[in-house]
């Protein structure tokens, strides 16, 4: 054995960090730690992540008014490469990957054989034969098993790659002043690489906020210098670091769903009736029946034809201003129709909004006369309210600056 | 001559559970125990000064919380303390740990295989799904498909409905699960030997089957069950050793007015004209009662204590062929200091969980090959715990009690009886295995209790030393346990009931057989059970 290469056993013995640190620290931990005024952390997929850093409400306004920096490193990431990578991903996921150009991103989802959604995520095409799949849950056995007969290499790279979301109206100004020349040409879902130190950073015009925004990926070792570069340039553009609480508000306004919050993933569900088909969680638009065969295709098309879809995901606008989180939805105030999975008073739309999962025919055939029952705990007493709810299209908040190219600077 | 409403043969935990429920429902009950102490296979004994041993069972996972609450066991001193993960030591000087923290657990598995690390969630989900199906059946009397009583039909319907909630796909999965070998099952999820060995081992404990024998996947479930309980502290050590469970039961029973007689071996259960009238003790005393409930195993009860001619021939035939094969032994060790395991990092939480040394399924199967040849395994697999790392009541500070459950160990050695020399040679396989991972281990030993099936049978009365009072194979479960047509705690003799682990749902310190038996007896007496709360829902 060469002195430079370590044996599998040695590598294994070296990898014992979890004993000292059961909660992983992201590559940006040092910066987040220094900025955290309130020490409000939570567990995101095994990582210590900020729920808020100084004030959740003010952090939200950084997204909508200036620039917000959010650490997305804990997102699960797989690198898929090889001659059959496109064909493989086309077989795996719902959308047509042949239509995804190099240096483009699309949002997609993938299903088990029964057409039940395993997860949703973003697929980055970094090269003709090179992709990155980002998602909430872990799927390595599924991805590897699905690769049978394809010439592809699949690698889990969550810990190796650091990710940052830079979102908000001044986010492009920050990038420009940080010296990333050419980002103004990026249209939504475009990807480009830019020099950073002796390497590169991959920047895409994507995000989870429905605002103007970018996501940046670098190898772990380059994380802190990237942060500092953005942070320094951001000072004149009122950049703030934010936690998940603020991001969650923005994503609800945009109507995005979160796996295992707005739906239960097929591999996570213990109860047989909790799984969902794409059409049951508002993802029917991802299903491309015209592309070559993909996993779950027959089950999904059968369910459509036989009208056996049981659920539907809708956006609701609710009377008043009390958020209806996890409230029951009723039809005519008496028949239980479903459940609110996410709800906020939208600071931007000034409306009381919610995402709800309804049991068909509620939400499909019966769309009127819907109500939600809100239990609001106020000083140790539930204030019970029955409030009228109206099905409305998502996104609840639509901002022209999200798509404007070239992007605005404020 | 004394007369009671009900006599319980044997003061194991199930006998005591039945006794408590009957006494609380207004019957006058006496427990007759052959040993000088109660507890059966759930005892704590001080065999050397300053050390308390959990002689037989050593971890409490299955004991039903409904019973603890109904019988006020916490008030009578029972405390179950949750324990941490554990480790398997590998032959290359490393180990595979398990952690309570989900993500640490995943990262530990990832040291061996990233794929296996992510497969664990799928595996845990599938096993949990099976547990969720089985768990509600524990606290219900199994339906008798031979009877057409409305209750049996509705219980059968319940089963059918539980099944009916399954998709055809899940139903197929369940049938596969119940009949597969644990080795085949694990192969469908994992690629790493040590990971499979770790998960298989805790599964096939107490069973005279190897990891490659069909039916062992279900046994895994029997051990996994405690974990879906949802109540904190479901898996753990009984504070004060497993005897704390039976001591609390005994106190609860006596507080309700029940009578416990120790050193009172029953030599005969009386049956006249097809009904029981009481028992005769080894000292010749006769104790009368119209109800006799035996917690001894089904072979001991019907082949030793009841006249064969009082029983239908077919029943006797079935009892004779009920599989009770001893497969395990136990070595209890008093240590004057905490052993060191250089493979583990300092202060590792693994020392507070269960530790194993068998890092491949193949080694486990080879250990089983020895058993088939009628020998104890030369390379046995151990389930080793040191409860004193969490329980300060079993030894003085700095001293430790170590419990090693050992598999395999045959009921007879190459067809002949065990000798003391055999027993010592068996113990040596265990000690030398530990010592090869823990330098200086032998020097720490203060006292040792070695139990082969011979000792277990002689003391606890478990036929062949089978720890579950009968194998937990699918042919011996539900309405086939212990004998088809007699799965509802009744026997061919009027007034004679069974309540031990030989009955549904089987062995382990679970208490469910004892409770279900009490419910059936009270039903026959047309009494509504007092203080028997409904089984907890699995939602
Ligand atoms: C070595 C070993 C380790 C185990 N480890 C675990 C574990 O860690 N966790 C777990 O959950 N389970 C474990 N088990 C299994 C569990 O302990 C048993 O399944 C359970 O304790 C059996 O309880 P029981 O009340 O049904 O019967 P027993 O405990 O067998 O009780 C029967 C009682 O009847 C008495 N008796 C028998 N014949 C007569 C007679 N003629 N007259 C009067 N009295 C009589 C016996 O002395 C005994 O007290 C283990 C068992 C063994 C042997």
UniProtKB/TrEMBL annotation, chain A:
Task: Using the record for this protein, list the coiled-coil segments as residue ranges, or answer none.
Answer: none
In this chain the Aminomethyltransferase C-terminal domain maps to 313-398
> Which ranges carry the GCVT N-terminal domain?
40-291
Name listed for the protein in its UniProt record? Aminomethyltransferase family protein
Lineage, uppermost ranks: Bacteria, Pseudomonadati, Pseudomonadota, Alphaproteobacteria, Hyphomicrobiales
From TrEMBL, chain B:
- Where does the record place the Amine oxidase domain? 15-522
Any Pfam family the entry gives: Amino_oxidase
Instruction: Cite the InterPro entries for this sequence.
Output: Amino_oxidase, FAD/NAD-bd_sf
Q: Which domain of life is it from?
A: Bacteria
Q: Which PANTHER family match?
A: PHYTOENE DEHYDROGENASE, PYRIDINE NUCLEOTIDE-DISULFIDE OXIDOREDUCTASE DOMAIN-CONTAINING PROTEIN 2
Q: What does this protein do?
A: Probable oxidoreductase that may play a role as regulator of mitochondrial function.
| Subunit note | Interacts with COX5B; this interaction may contribute to localize PYROXD2 to the inner face of the inner mitochondrial membrane.
Output this protein's name.
Pyridine nucleotide-disulfide oxidoreductase domain-containing protein 2
Q: What organism is listed for this UniProt entry?
A: Shinella lacus
